[in-house]
## 1
Amino acid sequence: MRINVAQLLKEPVGSTRSHKINTSIDDEGIDSVKGELTMTRTNRSILVAGTLRAATTGTCNRCLNQVRCKYNFNLEEEFFSIIDISSGSVSQGESDNSNAIDNNNMLDLTEMIRQYSVLSIPTKLLCIPECAGLCPSCGDNLNQGSCQCSNQNRNEHLAKLVKLGKEN
Ligand SMILES: [Zn+2]
Ligand SMILES: [Zn+2]
């Protein structure tokens, strides 16, 4: 996801460009990342910011079923040109590898989107908000009805889960 920002670098501070994102991060199981990022020329860099929406498949925190998960996250990073746009000389300092605009004025969003997408995956997924989870004694999925254990135990377990659900 490389973008040529030569023109934007020549424009006055405050100039912006929008860039639509529609990608996926296959090796992390994130099958869609969509949205729009705004690139803003600042007095020292290009600021990339926006909100993206991602989708992945995870495991329910209670019953271990597969869960389709969609989440939003905000991004904000500054990218520094390794070349001074007016003098053409290589500038020192500010830039590091992942947030550098290279000497062809290409800004690469790939690593930024990857990192934010992965870090933002919700850690406690539920298949449904009221998921009953697994029976702690026999391991049956309680969403599919009662298990072998006594109704007494089951009711207590459900009551606890309902209480947890309300607290969440
Ligand atoms: Zn579940
Ligand atoms: Zn049971």
## 2
Amino acid sequence: MYSEIQKIKNFPDYYSALNLPFGSSRDLIKNYYYTLAKIFHPDNKQTGQREKFEEIHKAYQILSSDNREQYDKVYIKVYTLKKKLSKEKETVLLSQDRIQYTTSINRLAKRGLLKTGLRKKDRSKYTGEKHDIDLIIFKSEIGKRILVKVPLVVRLLCPSCFGSDIHCESCSGIGTYKGTRLLQISFEPEQIVNNRIYEFELNRLRPEKFIHFKKKKFRIKIELH
Ligand SMILES: [Zn+2]
């Protein structure tokens, strides 16, 4: 048990080194790395910090390489264990009304952008917004861990035939079902920054093996109220 705890303590959290949540996209990792590297580079006389720079650099090396997959697997194990061992930090589970879809009918109507027959896919073009949801967080919740469960459209592999039987009665031979699943994402207190957008690669966050999200990337914008 002692060595387990030691292992957890020594496990480097490359995501938090870059101030990002687990599952962040490659692009976001790159952006954060370059931004932070500029700030902490030892040549920067005002804000340079060699130790911090090396930590960021190491984090970027791993998370931008093929080793990321392996690292992510261990990460999940370590953090599951860590959660069990440590007393839970105070966590706020956001209710569904704190999730605002940028392409929702209400939202478009409010901005006078509603056109009948406008396909959902095209809506983002009209709003000019690149993120999928706004997450409404109240100032009173600052300092707490925020948990959110976002319903997303998924394709589920047919459990009867696993997509292999064109005469399957369960899925009518289609091989998959359309369904929804809750995508669970948690933000650490220091990640709650107004107007910050986090981008997630959904295939890294799959709750079950036989699920495919319709989207590849999902962007969440933090909005403090
Ligand atoms: Zn089937």
